[in-house]
Structures are given as structure tokens and as C-alpha cells.
Amino acid sequence: MKEYKPVKEGKVREVYDDGDSIIMVATDRISAFDVILKNKVTDKGRVLTQMSRFWFDYTKDIIPNHMISCDVADMPEFFQTDEFAGRSMKVKKLDMLPVECIVRGYITGSGWESYQKNGTVCGISLPDGLVESDKLPEPIYTPTTKADLGDHDEHITFEESVDIIEKLHPGKGREYAEILRDDTIALYKKCADYALSRGIIIADTKFEFGLDENGNVVLGDEMLTPDSSRFWPADGYKPGQGQPSFDKQFVRDYLKANPDCDYDLPKDVIDRTIDKYKEAYKLLTGKDLSW
User: What is the residue-averaged pLDDT of the chain?
Assistant: First the structure.
């Protein structure tokens, strides 16, 4: 049996090269504030993979995505074990574009902090009188750079995203940047409407895109997981305050309240986090986690 070693390791994912395709494996690592924590969250990687799988299927009418299969039977023998089952996705190779595509439908987090200072979010002026967690009149697109592991992403304007892409793909910068912006907002609107019908508000999220061998823009990476999004319960939603969440907010809150914890989480925070991940998965898909 051929042994495989990751060709790339991110905060959460490990990437394996399989020739014409890639095997993406979502581990149970968890990160916050761009730091990988010391703990693992059992089954977290499976939630991420199966939730991405659901959304990729749901949105393939808007834009093609990189998913080929989540069945380890379709992967090399090395991956056909319980260790990899449920957390592995075979995907097309893409030339990833160097922009993280952030879309915000509600004002929260760093966006709320910015708005309080000067009425803008990432340089975009918003109406006066918004309160924390308000729904925005229209979703806004606030791209960032794509930082290396351990570095921080930096907010950029749409025009700056054009310039960044243009440097790598001369003559295509504006075309690709417009596709990223328009498809990011289209994906968000469709998925946010669906999620709301299932009892979840998607406050914001991020997408990543790449180019296939023909230069077509394709959706890659993960999609609308609790790691890449803010999920709030629609029941009890109340603007003017922070909202309870289905994502890793438990982790963020603990780290903020315990700055000397050395990124080591107590068991109850880990348990509450994975319970929320699984609850969100069931609400959105109507199914218990399985693979």
C-alpha cells in the first residue's frame, strides 16, 4: 500500500496530493485568533467535511465546485480507514486565487467595532443608527488577503483585490475579482435564505475560489461550516446585543476571558463546542452526523 504524507498543513486541514486530484482531510484541531489550540475536538473534522459536502451539492447551480467525492472507497487504499472516513474529501486541483471572500449579512464582531468608531465596515459606509447584530440592508463584500499560517489576514478593498489578482493573472484581475464578489454574494443569499428556513441565521461567512485547467472560476476549500461562518439561532434573535452562536464562539469567549490559559481549553468548553457544531449540522441538513 502506498503511504501518503501531507503536502500542506493548515490550521485545521491536511492536504494530500493524489496526482490528478487532492485529498483534503479535516482534522479535529481547532484554531482561534489565528492560533492552533492545544486541544482537539472529537468529530469536528467530520462535521466540517459533511457540512461542506451538503453546501457544495446545494449550490452547484450557482458555480461549479471542486468536490469529487467524500467516500473513502473512491480514494487510495491509504485513506480507506476509520481515521479518514467522514473527514476526507477528494477534490479537483485548482490554482487558488489569493483572496479570501468575506460576506457579511449582519453587523457583528470586528465589523461592529469598526462601525462604532466611524460608521464603516472595511471602508464601506453603512446607514446611521445600526445596533449590534442588526441585519444589514444588503450583504456587503469585504475581501481580505490570504495570509500564511501564523500570520493575520488583512482587509482590502475591492479595487485592491483587482490589483492583487491582476499581478498573478495579467488582463484578468477585474474579471476574476468581479466573479468572486458577485458569486460570493449570490452564494450567501441563497444559503442564508435556506438556513433561515431551518432556524439558523448566517451572520457572515467566507469563501475561497480557484481556477481550473481551463481558467474557469471554481469554488474550493470549505463552505459554510462553523469554522468559516457565524451561525446564530433564529429563535430568540435580538438586535442590540451579541447573539448565542453555533460556531466556535464558546472558544473565542473563553480565550478572551482567560488570557493566561495558554490556548488550553477545559473539557466543558470543548464539549459545548462540538455539541453546537453537531446541532447546527442537524438543523441544516435534517440528519444526524453520518458518513
Answer: 94
Kindly report whether the global pTM for this prediction surpasses the value 0.85.
yes
Closest of 109, 118, 122 to residue 154, by C-alpha: 122
- What is the distance between the alpha carbons of residues 125 and 118, in angstroms, rounded to a whole number? 9
Cα–Cα distance, 226 to 286 (Å, whole number)? 16
- Tens-digit pLDDT profile for residues 175-225: 999 999 999 999 999 999 999 999 999 999 999 999 999 999 999 999 999
Distance between CA 66 and CA 203 in Å, rounded?
Answer: 25
The helix/strand/coil state of 25 is: strand
Long-range contacts of 106-109 (CB under 8 A, 24+ apart): 106/133, 106/134, 106/135, 106/136, 106/201, 106/203, 106/204, 106/230, 106/232, 107/132, 107/133, 107/134, 107/136, 108/132, 108/133, 108/203, 108/204, 108/230, 108/242, 108/243, 109/204, 109/230
